[in-house]
User: What shape does this take?
Amino acid sequence: MRRQPIAVFLTLIALAIAAGWWWKKTEAAAKAAADPSHSTASKAPSKDGRAGAAPVQMVGVVSALQMDVPVTLEASGTVTALKTVDLRAQTTSTIKEVLIKEGQDVRRGDLLFRFDERADRANLDKARAQLARDRATLADLDRQYKRAKDLLAQNFVAQGAVDTALANLEGQRALIQSDEAAVQSAQIALSYNEIRAPMNGRSGIINGVPGSLVQANASTLPLVSITQLDPIAVGFALPETQLAPLLRASSPKDAAKSALQAQVLLPGAKLKPDEPPLLGRVSFVDNLVDSTTGTIKVKAEFENSQHKLWPGQYVQIRMTLRTLKDAVVIPQAAIIQRGNERSVYIVETQGEAKTAQLKPVQIRHVFGEMAAVDGISAGAQVVLDGKQNLRPGGSVKTQAAAVNPAAAAALAKRAASAASASASAAQP
Assistant: This one.
């Protein structure tokens, strides 16, 4: 009695499995009938012996852009002052006045320090007094010489007396020259009691206060250092492989524009929309390549009236070697490389049909995720997504490819840089 319910239960399960299999088979047949592309007939050869049409593939495309592309060279550099002067005492004295503050802008000729000058002024007065006394003696000897000549003419004295008077006169004249030199020396020593700015710049740390003793030519810290901030320079090193293009770019036919343009990129700084870039020109290329590092030293000079650049600061520098005018620009990801050959798929439209055609290209310059190429025209629809399974002449459907926002921003920045470089180069 107990075995009958079990048998009934197993029979029901078997019927359910059979019904499910029949239903799935019926559904698959219906789908095959509704979709001719999956039927056996659709895959059969046509009357002329050719296979049926290949499926249309969806691809993402971008338009090839046309723009001026600057060919740039970037390097890391350090801001350096064109001039830095350490001011030290040239006399032994005490500081009487300190007339500047640390970090103060100074102009050439500004009085910075004044020392106690009493001893040097007394020495100057003494030298002037000695000069006056010897000049009086010179006048007396000159009169004696003239008198001796008159007496010689009257045969009252011998020639030797005249010669002696002349020798005394010449000796006194030499003494006058010595006295005048002593006066000049005393004046110079007195001038050392004032220290003035030798150039425009900014003062550094002051190592002296009123009352401090200073000594001439002491190997101690300078009283103050003056650093020129405008103009200012950036020193950097380039690999020797970049020397040839650097020299070509920095030697144009126009001698008035013989320096290569350079731009400073401050770490972490962002230019405001109306703020001009920091532009300068390469002013120095070393005459020797460092054989140890394989680099050459270069220096660029910049106007720095707003003091945006500071000595010792670490910066990036970019130089525009040349500009590719009206270059065709596409994403690097669209380029297919086979050996030494490079090509891209271009979508061509004939009526309502769209086909992908393989076009060879030559890369002129690579920047970021973009590349300037030859071989295609501006506005061409370049396949970016879905090119892996394409074949030349294959039918495609197109949609706009997703472009990396960072690449788009870099492209816009590059265009702005080219415009800025062109505008700056046009200025006299």
